[in-house]
């Protein structure tokens, strides 16, 4: 009896703990369609989404308390939220360049290198004369995207263009745009969020072109399934979320992996197909780390395991796999990226170290080839006849050869994944 009671108590405690956890994650799950209070990029260019007293960093993952990153936002306990936020980004005004500004009721906070600047918080009317309190949204707008280096402030359906240099305020009406609850400049584009939808707008005129509003979770969050009728191809083509892995097989067909989905583009075709990873690579399920193609097989790495699929319709998973990456390739997972060019060497990127693995050797070993010091991090890589593409966040860099990747002293021109690889037109 005593044991039974003990077990009962344990179960109760577990159930309680679980329901508490479920409650917390239900409140904080950005895939539930949250309306964000404020959105900005950090000094490092990472998107920050604010909701209540929480902060989501990047395009996926859980929330943290915003006071862990910005302690002083909490000194006004009754606030518990951020009205608006933006990152000043004007190289012409070095004293403010890259400062992050947060707006709470009638106060503005300025952070630089994650420290609150002396004298802040200040009244909004003191720092941005002519701009009202209790804002809905704010976004930076540097030249030439706006005529002058400006900040655009939103309150209800009122829009204020604030000239950073002269402090002149120009009130505008953006008649075609909904009232924004947060606004965001990302990759030189301007987005107005309202509820869990967003519209892309012209910062000078407020005009919205194209099919908007769209679902924010399709483009700015990495959520697996939330709406049955969302268009996977359109979403994946234009998503700003970084790829997990990409490869091109010997026939020139390209496969790109992101979260629960993958995109496929066959050689000689402009048609992009999207499907769930689950449907074509069931054993892998989702969230692959790196993929390379070798002799009609896709080698797919997830955590410490290597999955091998024979390319076909459908792809077939080889018996005996997954096997440990360590056993098969001679180095420990996790792996960041991998590629094979036109020979029998696989190049594996772990951190910024490039390893060479002779696929014909037995057992296979990983030889350190080089440090890729041109980069801070690498998400995915692919080699085709025309060279190597290294993918970092939403961008990629094209190297004509492995030699240039290793010995190059400067990064080649940065290109956008959505446009350059998938033909997204916006
Ligand atoms: C942050 O806020 C939480 C909840 O309001 C509080 O418990 C915690 O002490 C705060 N932390 C800091 C560093 O202020
Ligand atoms: C937009 O804001 C104005 C107040 O400035 C308000 O009157 C109007 O109802 C709002 N529109 C919507 C759709 O919420």
UniProtKB/TrEMBL annotation:
<keyword id="KW-0677">Repeat</keyword>
<feature type="glycosylation site" description="N-linked (GlcNAc...) asparagine">
    <location>
        <position position="179"/>
    </location>
</feature>
<comment type="function">
    <text>Binds heme and transports it to the liver for breakdown and iron recovery, after which the free hemopexin returns to the circulation.</text>
</comment>
<feature type="signal peptide">
    <location>
        <begin position="1"/>
        <end position="19"/>
    </location>
</feature>
<keyword id="KW-0325">Glycoprotein</keyword>
<feature type="repeat" description="Hemopexin">
    <location>
        <begin position="79"/>
        <end position="131"/>
    </location>
</feature>
<keyword id="KW-0408">Iron</keyword>
<keyword id="KW-1015">Disulfide bond</keyword>
<feature type="disulfide bond">
    <location>
        <begin position="180"/>
        <end position="192"/>
    </location>
</feature>
<keyword id="KW-0964">Secreted</keyword>
<dbReference type="GO" id="GO:0046872">
    <property type="term" value="F:metal ion binding"/>
</dbReference>
<dbReference type="Pfam" id="PF00045">
    <property type="entry name" value="Hemopexin"/>
</dbReference>
<feature type="disulfide bond">
    <location>
        <begin position="141"/>
        <end position="146"/>
    </location>
</feature>
<keyword id="KW-0349">Heme</keyword>
<protein>
    <recommendedName>
        <fullName>Hemopexin</fullName>
    </recommendedName>
</protein>
<dbReference type="GO" id="GO:0015232">
    <property type="term" value="F:heme transmembrane transporter activity"/>
</dbReference>
<keyword id="KW-0479">Metal-binding</keyword>
<dbReference type="InterPro" id="IPR000585">
    <property type="entry name" value="Hemopexin-like_dom"/>
</dbReference>
<feature type="repeat" description="Hemopexin">
    <location>
        <begin position="178"/>
        <end position="223"/>
    </location>
</feature>
<dbReference type="GO" id="GO:0006879">
    <property type="term" value="P:intracellular iron ion homeostasis"/>
</dbReference>
<feature type="repeat" description="Hemopexin">
    <location>
        <begin position="285"/>
        <end position="332"/>
    </location>
</feature>
<comment type="similarity">
    <text>Belongs to the hemopexin family.</text>
</comment>
<feature type="disulfide bond">
    <location>
        <begin position="341"/>
        <end position="383"/>
    </location>
</feature>
<dbReference type="InterPro" id="IPR051298">
    <property type="entry name" value="Heme_transport/Cell_adhesion"/>
</dbReference>
<feature type="repeat" description="Hemopexin">
    <location>
        <begin position="132"/>
        <end position="176"/>
    </location>
</feature>
<keyword id="KW-0732">Signal</keyword>
<dbReference type="GO" id="GO:0005615">
    <property type="term" value="C:extracellular space"/>
</dbReference>
<dbReference type="InterPro" id="IPR036375">
    <property type="entry name" value="Hemopexin-like_dom_sf"/>
</dbReference>
<keyword id="KW-0813">Transport</keyword>
<dbReference type="InterPro" id="IPR018487">
    <property type="entry name" value="Hemopexin-like_repeat"/>
</dbReference>
<feature type="disulfide bond">
    <location>
        <begin position="31"/>
        <end position="223"/>
    </location>
</feature>
<dbReference type="InterPro" id="IPR016358">
    <property type="entry name" value="Hemopexin"/>
</dbReference>
